[in-house]
Design brief:
The chain is mainly α. It has a single domain, classed as Growth Hormone, Chain: A. The chain is built from 17 helices and no strands. Helix 1 packs parallel to helix 7, helix 3 packs antiparallel against helix 4 and helix 4 runs antiparallel to helix 5. The longest helix has 30 residues. It is globular and about 55 Å long. The protein starts with a helix and ends in a 9-residue tail after the last helix. The model has no long low-confidence stretch (mean pLDDT about 85).
């Protein structure tokens, strides 16, 4: 099947979006500026509160005024946030940079996936959403791998701040290339509406969701798994430092595992066709819990670093399939708003979970914090098991 120019632009966006050279050093950067685990997790928690407050308004803006405009604004704000991170020097400046980043993400979250889904749905002979999403994940992880390899080197040679400033360049290119995206029918600026009408639109979306228990369960499952994964991600770099990995090798380790992830996710659509989205979403949670248990019980070695990345692999295979299952169970006319509701639940769960994990790591140990993540993931797998569904 021939890939259209627009789909290639989706793939380019995924590649450019993940030229984030700071992936292997971000937590170390925070620690280098004197932040404790609790302060680091509070930065991300406050960011989640901010994101929580913004998700619904930005989703409404997307549905009412156009997803493409929302995505363009998002990428510009993210570009500015990278510059802000590079110029940061303490807790407050890092917090402000992260809030700017969260503002940018909120205009994209739910909206970009909805735009892709709607484009494919409206375009004859398009590949499946899962296939496109899997390919986006492939290019994202390939890009992140190259970025991580370069990022570790840049941090070692130039210092942490320069890594963020250099990452602003591909972010700016990504912002510019989005202006060339196709304009979808129905994705045009509508007449100015009142906040009363916005609230009515939002109320209708929540009413639809209330009548859709499967979509609610999928949202809860995805959002709790995401909270656990985001928390775990903050411990990879301190763990590597604790077991004696030198800074110049951080990027190489990240790069090697991300290359494996990039090629692994390409099989996700084939796996979905063979096994089914529901089963993959359910049983991948149990599979992710196993390495968490080993790390939580105190396993400490250079080899055990691979267990962190095993969870990363599972998340990257699970994520596009879970997103497909979610989109199949919501109505097309408010898909962007529903996507923002999903992101809202993600933010809500990160809001309570991240500060708890930060304090556990500071007061007790990193291992105990990882064990708490294991408990969250296993309870999520058991109590939010997805039953057989009928798509909307």
């Amino acid at each position: 099947m021939k890939t259209s120019k627009q789909i290639k632009k989706f793939y380019l966006a995924s590649f450019l979006k993940n030229q984030i050279y700071f992936v292997p050093i971000m937590v170390l950067f925070f620690q280098d500026l004197g932040l404790s685990y609790a302060e680091i997790f509070w930065i991300f928690t406050i960011g989640s509160v901010f994101s929580f407050l913004l998700e619904i308004p930005t989703g409404l803006i997307s549905d009412l005024y156009g997803a493409r405009r929302s995505i363009i604004l998002s990428k510009f704000l993210i570009f500015l946030s990278f510059i802000a991170f590079g110029l940061s020097f303490n807790f407050i400046t890092l917090l402000l940079a992260n809030l700017l980043y969260e503002l940018g993400k909120s205009f994209r979250s739910g909206t970009e996936t909805a735009f892709v889904y709607n484009y494919l749905e409206a375009t004859p002979k398009s590949p499946s959403y899962t296939l496109v999403k899997v390919n986006q994940k492939f290019y994202a992880r390939l890009s992140e791998s190259l970025g991580a390899l370069l990022g570790g080197f840049l941090a070692y040679k130039l210092g942490f701040s320069w890594v963020f400033l250099i990452a602003a360049l591909p972010a700016f290119i990504n912002f510019i290339q989005t202006f060339t995206w196709a304009k979808l029918e129905g994705d045009r600026k509508k007449s100015i509406v009142s906040w009363k009408n916005n609230l009515i639109f939002l109320k209708t979306a929540f009413k639809d969701l209330k009548k859709n228990p499967i979509a609610l369960r999928i949202i809860a499952n995805i959002s709790l798994f995401t909270a656990g994964f985001v928390a775990l991600d903050k411990f990879v770099q301190p763990y590597m430092k604790n077991v004696g990995v030198e800074l110049q090798y951080f990027g190489l380790i990240y790069s090697a595992f991300l290359i494996i992830v990039a090629f692994l996710v390409r099989f996700a659509s084939k796996l979905e066709a063979k096994v089914g989205a529901r089963k993959i979403m359910n049983y991948s949670s149990f599979l992710a819990a196993l390495p968490l248990l080993a790390l939580g019980l105190g396993l400490s070695s250079v080899v055990a670093v691979g267990l962190f990345f095993l969870v990363l692999m599972i998340d990257n295979v699970r994520s596009p399939i879970a997103n497909t299952l979610f989109h199949q169970n919501v109505k097309s006319e408010n898909r962007a708003t529903m996507g923002s509701i999903l992101e809202l639940f993600k933010s809500l769960n990160k809001l309570w979970f991240l500060p708890v994990i930060g304090y556990v790591a500071d007061i007790y140990s990193l291992s105990l914090a990882i064990l708490a993540i294991f408990i969250l993931i296993i309870l999520n797998a058991i109590f939010l098991f997805i039953p057989k569904t009928k798509t909307v």
